[in-house]
Amino acid sequence: MPSPTPRRGLSLQWLELFKICADKGALQAAAEETGLSVSTVSHHLSNLEECLGVALFDHSRRPMLLTPTGHAFLRRIEGVLHELRAAQAEASAGNPENARYLRVGLVDDLDSDVAPGLAVFAAKRMPQCDFFYHTDSSHAIMRMLRNRELDIGVVAHSPDQIVDLLDYPFLRDPFLVVTPMDMSGNLNALLRGETGLPFIRFARNLFIGRQIEAQLRRLNITLPNRFECVSSNTQLAMVAAGSGWTITTALHFSRGQRFHDKVALHRFPSKSFARTMSVAATPDCSQAVLTLFRSKIVELLTETTLPAIYARLPWLKDSFTLID
Question: What's the pTM value of the predicted model, to 2 decimals?
């Protein structure tokens, strides 16, 4: 590929898009991640190749494959991109209004109560910033943070999962037992499997499912695996219909308002346990932006979610709590 004369300077956006395309192997995937059109992504890559005077991709292959030169270029720029992101974050640390692009992942537990208010607030507070919002499970968001596909994630996690990321905890979310309203028998008999009512568990590939299973193992409780769900609302619907019982969290329960009058909520017997909700981020993310997001999430929870659940279940005030 001939080299143009004179050459233009390299664009940071070109380098970012090149890395995404190299990781994803497709223009469409890069377009979906960045919010750009496929033609725009292709145009930027062409500009980069023209500027360098080399072919970085074999465009005849699907998925897109890097040329040997492309592989060498990718190795060189990965460290550079990390340092540039860190420099940008440091430069704008005291002023979120300077942020230009932010990719945010939100655990689906907060999709209805917190996510809309957070998005509206961020748009007003950071008027020059372009946003990408993604809703998913906690373990998927953590993976995307580590892969640098997101900048900030609002997740549930355990301490061992967060060691390589920035971590700003904001909520203690206790695990509770949910039973049909008319269930007879005590909770200990339920946990021993003596009532005949099936246990409806979270899918074990989810962080919340693994956390519940670990607690049951610690208590030497083994329950048959008849029902396994990804959706907490599916669990509550089945409990409301009398098809079983489940273990969930106060936050999950607060989302399923249409089932509240048909189920009973109980403290977890024996040793209680909880999950921690946090704002997590890559090490090069602006701490000012992190603090801003955490503060707004706490404000939204204080105004809506917590008062509503306390009004219905006052005994949760001592366990379903904000973290200072």
Answer: 0.68
